[in-house]
Design goal:
By secondary structure, the chain is α+β, with helices and mostly antiparallel strands. The protein has three helices and seven strands; from the N terminus they run H-E-E-E-E-H-E-E-H-E. A hairpin with a 2-residue loop joins strand 5 and strand 6.
Length: 116
């Protein structure tokens, strides 16, 4: 069910990502472009490691994704420049096709097996 649901929403423009603030411990929600690849979401931080949401993920990888009324808990990780090079190139190419832009620091969001 989760993978078919993700394919249904893959053409949406934005998702809402909730991280936990690394200083405050409070939920922080952002609106951001995304792509779907291999059953995961990929986001791109335009400002790289300087993005507050990336800092939050580095501190606590447990996140939530919301698209419309659909919500899922997930785990996030910043893709490594060296070990994830091929994956980085693949998801950047998809983002370029979808948005005309695929630069930035790529972050992988792996949904839990239960969607809500």
């Amino acid at each position: 069910m989760l993978s078919s649901r993700m394919e249904d929403i893959a053409d949406k423009k934005v998702l809402y990502l909730t991280t936990i603030g690394c200083r405050t411990g409070l939920p922080r929600e952002i609106e951001i472009w995304f792509i779907v690849f291999g059953g995961r979401f990929y986001l791109f931080a335009e400002t790289g490691e300087a993005a507050k949401w990336v800092k939050n993920i580095r501190s606590n990888p447990n996140v939530a994704v919301r698209i419309g009324n659909w919500r899922v808990d997930a785990t996030a990780r910043v893709l490594d420049r060296d070990t994830d090079r091929q994956l980085r190139d693949s998801v950047a190419a998809i983002a370029v096709r979808k948005y005309g832009w695929g630069d930035g620091l790529p972050v992988e969001i792996s949904p839990s097996t239960r969607d809500q």
